Amino acid sequence: MALGAARGTDHGGARANAGTPPRGPRAAPPAASVLTGLGGTATTVKSAPGGTALATVLDPLLKNPALGDRSAAVVDVATGTRLYGTGPGTGKALTPASTTKIATAVAALSAMGADHRLTTRTVYEPDTEEVVLVGGGDPTLTARKDKDAAGGPASLRELADRTAAALARKGVREVTLSYDTTLYKGGTIHPIGVNPNLAAVTPLMADEGRTDGSSSGPAARVADPAADAARKFGDLLKEHGIKTTPPGPSKATTRASTLATVSSPPLSALVERMLTHSDNDLAESLARHTALATGKPADFAGAGEAITARLKQLGLPVKGADVKDGSGLDRRDRLTADLLTALLVKAGDPAHPELRSALTGLPVAGFTGTLAGRYGDGAAGVVRAKTGTLTGVNTLAGTVVDKDGRLLAFAFLANATTDPAAAQSALDKAATALATCGCR
């Protein structure tokens, strides 16, 4: 699958339409409510599991040779108490793969707020009679006809409709068409190179530059997503009788007047999409927006610095962390199990409701996103976790409600793995063990 074609990266699982599980619907198994773990009383939820009991259950599973170099932590979400861990202090920093997206989610939500939206706009330059399509860093912008429903992603077609109407009011029927990608800085190609797991990182793209109609997972991408989006926009303007030149790069000036805008769903919804479907394009976009919101350069280095700084500001244990991108595709990323569990605890903190979608967006075992095809029994519907997979790297971090109704956060990191299927199975067994034992 993508492990060979994508230089060892496989963050999106099998290609599928967003929100569509790989098999037919089935009845959900009975499972304790996640909210019970957070808000239950002493009469409904027992005390947190004991560390010794947890070690008795988890140690044999996590010492599986398939896991190579490993680190793990389990924390009681209600109290933030560390119940189990391998390694002293802040733990061992390892390559986290796509569990990095949890850090990206929390940093972005903290920096911009859950209601923030990403806006794409068109402006009119009166001196040159130029229409400039200004990228706002929204990779969910779509040119598809079937995605114009209210509440869905921003529509390039709707932007063309509004732009054409605004030009008609000005009596303009012929324009020079340009596009502006100056919101971001630096190179557009991820350090892993051209890769089907993500498009070139640019603030202007339609449908993530995908060429096969897919909505998630690895896919062939256009070489220049911004130019592609501008060309599609020009074709849409022509349908409204607006004659345009072939689009070229430019920069909107301060003299330009806004013609039309379209905005993405709120950041909370974007974070849920990013986590559920391990959307690398969205992750890199949110990392850059975190940089912009905190005064850092909107490039790979600035985005990584912004994420780390934001987590430190939240009081999270960032010692040993080294964030190189927003998606986790960069093998140089380093996170600890303690930081990943602390991120999940912070997202569940009633004092930080703006972070809650970092929990609600986690894939549900056996049902949604990258966990749809895992946990066929046992912990299906009970484990919610972000997966991470690179060649030699298998990770899993999320939450689980144990059999006594206690909500636990866990992070399992394995590097230097040689058998990805065996490593994934070992991590799944460890998460299932948390769900099925009282461990007291």
From TrEMBL:
<feature type="region of interest" description="Disordered">
    <location>
        <begin position="1"/>
        <end position="31"/>
    </location>
</feature>
<dbReference type="InterPro" id="IPR012338">
    <property type="entry name" value="Beta-lactam/transpept-like"/>
</dbReference>
<keyword id="KW-0378">Hydrolase</keyword>
<dbReference type="GO" id="GO:0006508">
    <property type="term" value="P:proteolysis"/>
</dbReference>
<dbReference type="GO" id="GO:0004185">
    <property type="term" value="F:serine-type carboxypeptidase activity"/>
</dbReference>
<dbReference type="Pfam" id="PF02113">
    <property type="entry name" value="Peptidase_S13"/>
</dbReference>
<dbReference type="InterPro" id="IPR000667">
    <property type="entry name" value="Peptidase_S13"/>
</dbReference>
<comment type="similarity">
    <text>Belongs to the peptidase S13 family.</text>
</comment>
<dbReference type="GO" id="GO:0000270">
    <property type="term" value="P:peptidoglycan metabolic process"/>
</dbReference>
<protein>
    <submittedName>
        <fullName>D-alanyl-D-alanine carboxypeptidase</fullName>
    </submittedName>
</protein>
<keyword id="KW-0645">Protease</keyword>
<feature type="compositionally biased region" description="Polar residues">
    <location>
        <begin position="251"/>
        <end position="260"/>
    </location>
</feature>
<keyword id="KW-0121">Carboxypeptidase</keyword>
<feature type="region of interest" description="Disordered">
    <location>
        <begin position="240"/>
        <end position="260"/>
    </location>
</feature>
